[in-house]
Write a structure and sequence with these properties.
Length: 255
């Protein structure tokens, strides 16, 4: 009997199918249960088929940089080339070896940040598996107590002074991170975290899925943190505007 693929392997098989056109990729999905949270993609297998067909015309390239598992979830940090380079977070929930629910957040990559870092480079090794829950709790407290509550004076409680930053517009260091979070444009926060919907973690990494706004535009805010010694030492993120309700192709919502 062929051993069941891990969720880490399943998410890669499914998403690599965008590039290869492998018909086996679709078999990763339980079409009867599949719930789609990308507002621009139709529900179920029909939506997936339409998405794959549309992307196939762009000579797509899918590159996995980091892939994680957390309980019933698998999540990936990818580079996509669909007529333009994007950084992407992909999240799938699985039941009985099949994908039954999907969330994502993509952002075009504008270039290197002020510290010369890209949106996807940096550490990839998963360590400290015994600290998964402790690191999840630290990430949760940081998002809720600092980002959502906007208590930026407490940032140093959670973030290392020498933070390695991959946000395309922010330099390394806790001070630069605090300044970017505090920044206003015409009195409106450049980045406003309003609610954290989910935190997924494996070892020294935690992905925080939040909702808020970027320069006043309703957006999905995804942050991936690497933790070491109980502090956040590296950060990757994507900011993606959420389509107006009138343009949604399903009723499940972004989150």
């Amino acid at each position: 009997m062929k051993p069941m693929m891990s969720q880490r392997e399943l998410i890669q098989k499914l998403l690599k199918g965008i590039e290869t056109g492998d018909p086996e990729a679709a078999k990763v999905v339980n079409e009867a249960k599949y719930i789609q949270h990308n507002p621009r993609t139709a529900e179920g297998s029909v939506g997936l088929a339409e998405l794959f067909a549309r992307l196939a015309t762009t000579n797509p390239r899918v590159t996995f940089v980091r892939v994680f598992e957390d309980g019933d979830f698998a999540f990936a940090h990818n580079e996509y080339d669909f007529n333009g380079i994007e950084a992407a977070f992909e999240v799938f929930r699985f039941e009985d070896g099949k994908a039954v629910e999907h969330w994502d957040n993509l952002q075009p990559i504008p270039g290197l940040n002020p510290s010369g870092r890209g949106m996807l480079d940096g550490e990839t090794g998963i360590t400290d598996l015994d600290l998964t829950e402790a690191n999840r709790e630290i990430a949760k407290r940081f998002v809720m107590e600092v980002l959502v509550a906007r208590q930026f004076d407490r940032l140093d409680e959670f973030v290392a002074e020498e933070l390695v930053q991959h946000d395309p517009y922010t330099a390394d260091g806790a001070a630069a991170f605090r300044a970017s979070l505090s920044a206003l444009h015409d009195g409106i926060p450049l980045l406003l975290y309003e609610r954290c919907h989910r935190i997924l973690a494996e070892g020294n990494f935690a992905l925080c899925i939040s909702e808020g706004s970027a320069e006043g535009v309703h957006s999905g805010l995804y942050d991936l943190f690497r933790l070491d010694g109980g502090r956040i030492v590296e950060r990757w993120n994507t900011v993606s505007a959420i389509a107006p309700r009138s343009e949604w192709k399903n009723d499940n919502g972004k989150f």
